[in-house]
Amino acid sequence: MNRRKLLHTFGVAGITAASGSVFASANTDELPEALKDKLANVQSISYKMFGAVGDGKNDDSIQIKAAHAYANKMNLPVINPGGEYWLKQANNIEIMTNVDWGNTIFHIDEKTNTAANGRFKIMPRKEKMNVELNAEQKAAFLKQFKPGVKLIPELSPYKNCLLGVVDKGDQIGFRAGAKYNGQSWSREELFYVEEHGRIIGDIAWQFKDYTSFVAYPVDNGYLTVNGGTFYLSGDSNGKTYVKCGFLISRSRTIIQNQWVGLEPGKTDSSNGPRSGFYTFSNVYDTTLQNVRLIPFEQDREGTANDVPQGTYGISAARVLNLLFRNVTAEGGPVHWGVFGTNLNKNFRIENCNLNRVDVHFHCWNLYIKDTNIGYRGISVTGGGDLIIENTSCYSRSFINFRRDFGAKWDGHIRLRNCKFIPVSTTEVAMLDFNPMDFNHRYSLGFGRSIVVENMVIDFSAMQNPDLTCWLMKIPSFSKAKDGGRVFFPNYIEFRNVIVEGRDKGLRLLEIVDPGYYDTGKPGGYDGVQLRPNSKMRFENIPLEDLSSDAGNKDAAAHFSVKMTKEGNYADPLALYPEIRFVDCKNVSTSFSGQVANADFERCSLALISGGEKGPLKGRFSFSNCLFSPSGKDDRKVFYSISSELGTSLTNCTVHAPKINGVVRPELTDLNGFVVLNKKVKYNQLNTQLGNEIIRYWQAKNLVFITQFISMLKNHHQLEKEDV
């Protein structure tokens, strides 16, 4: 029988160039007896067995697809330790068994990329299925299915499944921006079911109903795809998103030890976007490790050469427990972010070098450790635990909470031992919450708690290192136009921040309209006590010298609280803060008469403004502080520290004002709470005068009278103020 007749009779796709033997289709019953005998005792499959040539002319993708089809059918691993192969027309090369490519090189012709199919498709053995619940079971499920649930016994029949719940009748996550024209997401959840209905994956949403409930059975063992080098031709075409590598829909998959890049001598000339060399979809417990790939070019010189949309090296949607370990994908300003994801839960990034970390909509629990993030930065929205450790970020902000999805983080934020390397031509913010005033159909907010400790901010890379830098930037509204109130953290702490690459320090935080925030916890103020529902601590922070503005009515401040709207605080959930400053120098604050307790410990104080319309509704407390006023004129009372619940100074020192850089002891009385030999206000214990004041007035033959000195040593607010 000749070769053509063999192909027709047995339905196979080709012949090996070397031996002339027929290579197999997926249907082993159609194999020639001779080939059956040859394959009967093999323990693994290689591509040469199925006719792959590797000469640069043959389309090896056809033979490779057949080899994997046979391996899948017989449950055999593919072990192909070397060789070079050219992939052209064939897509969706299905992988269901372990693969070891070793040093195998694949050349991928990107002109044949398609929107629907990847080159390789890592697939599960079992098909997805609908979760069938009767009316009573559905009602019971919806009653239990809410944030905090860890066990739903009714779901125990679906153990070892990834479950997805969708309510298309409830759209949320509306994307701000005219070009998105109402783009939104259905309310959706993803979780894994263990024994007896145990739930893995925090539930973030409450559901009134659902339109689909799907179970994706998870394979019992791990599938590993190891090794391989992939050269891309770089000339992908089309205006829609195309795929160029792996589609991963099998849970418990490990992809490792791979290199992805452009063909030697080639450039990325694609005029259309790619959806990812690695695309993860509806998977649980997957790992990408020891991989080098590239972010694709998007913003080339000359707009005619730009790719019109974001273009990705990795994409993911609806994934739970995804791990990136030792993944490298860096580039410059011309490159788009290496990956973009949506609906990603329990996402871990370890020991990576990436030009961006990006989750568009609804990341839940993100952990980044021992990683370097490049020019495109960290850009996220979602909730749960956001934990970043021993990580550097070279961008305009350390974390940019995505403006188009409301800059929302509904959870706890922890940053430890990290480095922020700002690069920008405008002011920068370490934590940048900057939502548009837009109805996203869910609550907006800036975390439930924030702790940042041992952070280095290095300005060495900035062309203008003296630009203003905020530790935390939030919008100028606390209540959106649609009436929605923004939630505010119950605890904020910034501790031990180091500035390198410039002498200029930092600014802290501006809070506007605290009475309309929603802290989620009751607080209040009744003129007798302040019951705080949010605590803030700023410790050992190098602050910017604001003395050039200190004489202005609307002077800049490191920390401020102000009200722009008329009216009282909305309810007990409004922001009633307690703020503590520790070991900070040249502090300038403005409270505008709002409700707060403000405590200062071991700080030097340049300007404290409690409010021009009345005393602070709360208390001021100063311990071991230096009152060192500074400004650019001599018309300012530097410290407005009157408070309704009492102002206390313990072991503090009053220094002479410094005006335009010149120490002016003759203006000492402008401090606002001590007038030499005439007045001592508030509660004071062991208050001292600076040596420059004492020497100046002694030289003027001023004698400090005994009663004035006694009042500095110990004075109570109920005692008379005048000496």
Shape: elongated
How many E-type strands? 50
Separation of termini? 121 Å
The percent range for helix content is under 10%
Helix and strand composition category = mainly beta
What does it look like?
It contains six helices and 50 strands. Among the domains are: 84 residues, no CATH class; 65 residues, no CATH class; 217 residues, no CATH class. Helices cover 8% and strands 39% of the residues. The protein has 723 residues and is mainly beta. The protein has a ten-stranded parallel barrel with strand order 15-16-18-20-23-26-24-21-19-17. Strands 29, 33, 35, 37, 39, 41, 43 and 49 form an eight-stranded parallel sheet that branches. A five-stranded antiparallel sheet has the order 6-10-7-8-9, with no helix packed on it.
Task: Give a quick precis of the structure.
The protein has 723 residues and is mainly beta. The protein has six helices and 50 strands.
